[in-house]
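Extended Data, panel c. Modelled sequence:
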Amino acid sequence: MEPETAPLSSTAAATTGAEADSAAAAPEEKQKRGLLIALIAVAGAILIALIVLIVVLVSNQGDDTAGPLPVPTASDSETPEPEETESPEPTDEPSDEPSASPSATAAPPPPAPQSPSFATFSGPNRATCPDTSSSVAITWSWSSTNAVAAWFGIGTNNAKAEPFESVPTTATYTFNYQCSEASQRYTVTLEDSAGRLTHKTVEIVRQ
């Protein structure tokens, strides 16, 4: 016959139950602890990734900012100085070719030829007669320009056509006024080399 085992006491039974509970709870604790370590590792990785991202952003901003301008360094080669060219000296000799007109406007017409003219003329237009039968001397003076011939006429407006006599182109001329006439016209006519005429007529009245 087999020997009979003695029944376990209540204290031993309780101890055995606690050990069984502890053995059952150990894997659960290990599982929680492993999960916590994994979460910590993931959080650490995320934190490291954030730190790396911040560092990269800061470094990129530093690259975008303008850095110091490069200091120009002296080149070993010397810059050639421009050579002075001698400008041609102006010559006083006239050019054979006519210069181009600065504008398309037509050249002004040549001035009209100058007719003979009286530069000065003086003489009375009154004759003081003592009676109607005598004559009194009248003196005229004149000077002219561009005249080559002159005439003195009585009772005419053109002394060349009806001359009394030829006179100098510049002269002091004396003639006799006939007191028998109440008035009379006297004319000096000038002529230039082209045949143009200029007349000076004065009517003398008896007093």
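The first helix runs from residue 10 to 64. This feature is highlighted in the accompanying rendering.
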